[in-house]
Design brief:
With about 350 residues, chain A is of the alpha/beta class. Helix content of chain A is about 45%, strand content about 10%. Strand 4 of chain A pairs antiparallel with strand 4 of chain B.
């Protein structure tokens, strides 16, 4: 386990990692949307403003097909740095881990078979209430059904997400639930001031400390849906929440609705865990007694600047990348040298596409 | 294996049954729709004409929740005989077999999480072409994706369907592909004349012997979708096609696109296999060298006339009932006495619902 960095309860981390060693994994990729991402400059998930809504389905399509159908190119930053989905795809393929896409409020449906939940997108929390109270109940209920279903099919259910603007709604939910959260971002010069302004404004509308009301007012559909998945799935199998700040928000809400903490862990990249502008490890410890496991994929050693960029703070995490790399290493014993080699091969393939 | 009746290659049947004994099963329930069912008197799937379109989602909801959301009562014949979904639900629950719903062209989406495929419903083959050629390609492609995905999660993928009017489109496809098919029905006085009239009329429009063109002209969305699932899933796991005539049509089309026959079998109730108005066993033998396995659930021994009715020719099969009973017996060693007891308990529960 020396391949990983552990924070929180280290006995639990050892038990968790031991229990999933060489086992079967299933990656569930939850795509969603909050109009909060339409606030100028708040996210880099998607090269141009009008393209942001296509990022979640495009990531799902890229994971599955190796190219996108909804848009022409795979999601990239304006200067051509690829989606963290690349890291996820390479991790899954290196160890033949199956995956399934779940639409929990994406504005655009992906062009592949996916689990439909009937959830709406979230509204812009800077200007209005995100979801109705009944949307939040629906999200938790359907999350519980999907979680129970998928949990019965695997030894370890890995849950990742793509929701542009989601770090801002997560920050708002964490603060409203009483945590001193700072926040990671897909942009190295994290637009902290802007996010804080949006969050502070949203928080003024909170008039109830009921967790469902809080998520309805200032959250997004992904948070209650994934918390519902964790709630039911952790009864029957191991669950790895694959992500950074957004999964911390899921965890904070899940603490309110309940889950089996001995079956849960959060997994991310060291780029998030070691991000000085956020306080990820402390935050997880404050929320829950589950282990936070992070992995350094050593992309700083890559010969490609587009891969190196992840280690320099661009899109440090996303599409469950960190958790999938951890899963891939646990399933097949994949080592970091081989992982980097596979990632470079995929990067090469992508950038020589016609 | 003396619990079952075998037809076709009996060595293959023994191998197949041995290979799934005490293993993990996953039931995938494919719901679909063909406007062919709107021809008066052609089906009994749904109590009233306007309600027929709700039968597929209602069956899915009943399997999951134990009651329906889209309509008030579970699907029944006009005189109160319940959906064969009852037999399926009891089989799945008796051995804790998980299931997942797939929407492959249902007119109405079920009120639960399901796999969405984006397929349209089929048109009425008596009056017009059912699907576009590209719909059929889409169905096969998406079927292949879903099949590969689900196959990686189980030792035996059981596939059932609900498509009102589907025996008629199946009969048409079988005849067009050159098989002397007679056809079973959900009505004991099988409206053979009416079905033959519809099929003969539809067959006059066939002007190509390409299997995709045939299915597009006179088939339905379920057939190419499930054939696609079989095509990819049989590469990696055992596949049990759970159904009667409709699964024979799937098999006939799948013979054209290919599948691993040593990993496939068809499973149904003895009520279909022994139906004198159809020729199920001979038909399967004519189409493919895979075993046909049937089970007699001994519902004739029930104290409830609503359960006895299945053995008397009402809704002899459907919602994958026969294949799920076989799976349940293979997974946990469930015997027929216990199965009947569980079915009667469920029947009791349903008919004392408020």
């Amino acid at each position: 386990m020396e391949a990983f960095q552990i924070s929180g309860n280290s006995d639990k981390a050892t038990d968790f990692l031991e229990s999933i060693k060489s086992k079967n994994f299933l990656f569930s990729f939850v795509i969603s949307y909050t109009e909060t991402c339409e606030i100028p400059e708040i996210t880099v998930a998607g090269a141009e403003k009008d393209l942001i809504q296509y990022t979640p389905p495009a990531d799902a399509e890229y994971l599955h097909y190796g190219y996108c159908k909804t848009i022409e190119r795979i999601p990239m930053t304006p200067d051509g740095k690829p989606t963290p989905g690349l890291l996820t795809k390479v991790a899954l393929e290196s160890s033949s881990i199956p995956h399934i896409t779940i639409n929990a409020g994406s504005k655009i449906a992906p062009q592949l078979p996916f689990i439909e939940t009937g959830l709406p997108s979230g509204k812009n929390i800077y200007v209005e209430k995100s979801l109705t109270d009944s949307d939040v109940s629906h999200a938790v209920d359907y999350g519980r059904i999907v979680g129970r279903n998928l949990a019965s099919l695997t030894d370890c259910l890995v849950i990742g997400e793509c929701i542009p603007g989601g770090t801002t709604t997560s920050l708002a939910v964490l603060r409203a639930l009483g945590y001193d959260a700072r926040v990671s971002s897909s942009i190295p010069t994290n637009p902290v001031k802007l996010k804080n302004k949006v969050v502070s404004s949203a928080l003024t509308r909170i008039n109830s400390d009921h967790p469902y009301s809080i998520v309805a007012e200032i959250g997004d559909p992904m948070i209650p849906f994934v918390a519902g998945m964790l709630n039911s799935a952790s009864d029957v199998t191991k669950v790895l929440l694959a992500g950074g700040t957004q999964m911390a928000a899921v965890l904070a809400f899940a603490e309110k609705i309940g889950f089996q903490d001995e079956n849960a862990a959060i997994g991310t990249t060291s780029y998030v865990a070691n991000d000085d502008s956020a306080n990820f490890d402390e935050l997880v410890k404050e929320i829950s007694d589950i282990p936070a496991i992070s992995v350094d994929p050593e992309l700083d050693k890559s010969k490609f600047s587009g891969l190196k960029a992840f280690s320099e703070g661009f899109a440090k995490e996303g599409v469950g990348a960190g958790g999938c790399i951890i899963s891939s290493m646990m399933k097949s014993g994949l080592d970091k040298t081989k992982y980097l080699e596979n990632a470079e091969k995929e990067y090469d393939r992508l950038f020589t596409l016609p």
